[in-house]
Request: fold
Amino acid sequence: MQATMKNKIDCLFTLSLACIILCVANAFLAAPSPSSKHHDTNNHAPIISYKTTTTSSCTSSSSTTTTTTTSLHSSRNGAEDIYGAVHRKEYEMKRLNSQHASLSDPIRMAMGYAQEGIERKRLAAALRRVYDDPYNIANPNAKQKSREELKREEKLSENGLAEATMRRGSFIVDIKRRSLSYPREQFARYDDASLVAEAMVRLGADVVFVNVDFHSYGGDLGELKSSVKAVRGVNNDAAVVMKDIVVDEIQLGLAKEAGADGIVLIASVLGPALDNFLSLATMIGLEVIVECHTYNEVKAALDALATNIMVSNRDRITGELIPDQAIKLAGMFPGSGGPIITIAGGGVTNTDQMKKLLAVGYDGVVVGKTVMGSPKAPEFIRAVRDRTLLPAEFSQWGLDDVEFDVDGNVMSGPKKDIPSPNDEDVFL
Reply:
């Protein structure tokens, strides 16, 4: 009897030890190895597919089966990273779907109604600043071109430069209290995002991103709704975009029901599901900005017929900042006035970086942390809006340091490393 009891205890001890070893092995395999810290400029696998199932069994007189689901890189130095955020978001959306299961629910109705007719594309118009162009046909207050302007266009067309017109850059502000990129750091304190959105639009911002994920960015859907109302009261041409870690189609319904003009989809998170999300957004009349970081992500967005693409210098997978990533990928897009609207951002800390991104062909620049709770915001907005840009086709002509005012004339102020008799203190 004692021998039988001892055998059972030994078996239970062996089973427990095997389970502990299995858990440790899973954790070790999930952790990033030091040798994997290099930056991959091609592609990452979609985050939402990073799940593994392992089974172990120990047989005595009976068998026990244990199933474990592992999320890779669920934390970084104890703080939540993109992997942990995605799996948390999946759980939250599962609960949200159950709460809004009724077909008469406002969110389900927002997702279920197909957009009829041609709806105003407020986001696309804001990113291209068509309402500031007096000759743009999309501008309801467009003017008739003079005879000289028509002759000039005809001459440009004869030389294959029909689209070689001066561009206007847009300023996009990313409103957030904190970020996954800066764990445990709160860099802005405000009562409601709508106050910041209204102030930024009054200063001249063309588009505002309102983050609605509280855990990672400190925002919520209530702030998105109040921001839409505040921005509409100030400028009916400015666009409001919902920014979230989108993993479920119901989040498109949340954005539409809140009155947002668009939503940000992260290519590295959605992977091959991006096509379905773009199709649903198009059907319900919600504009989309696809955030990319690698060559393959940009290619996938273009293949999916995304019309608004944001190239980020920040690698969502590793959290690493690659300062020139957007510049390296700028050549993947058509030239000025093409069907693809491109913006860039990620780690922008000064106006020179913004000007460089605009000079290589991007239509707009996204700035977040640098202008949150900072007096620099007016300076950054003026640096974009108070000048015009050469066509993207001229980006390789070595004219990056030449700046033009809103009328297309060369600006006489101080320029980097280019002394001018009109510059104050130029010889000091």
Observations:
- The CA atoms of residues 43 and 296 lie 5 Å apart.
- The two ends are 99 Å apart (CA to CA).
- The chain has a mean pLDDT of 78.
- DSSP finds 15 helices and 14 strands in the chain.
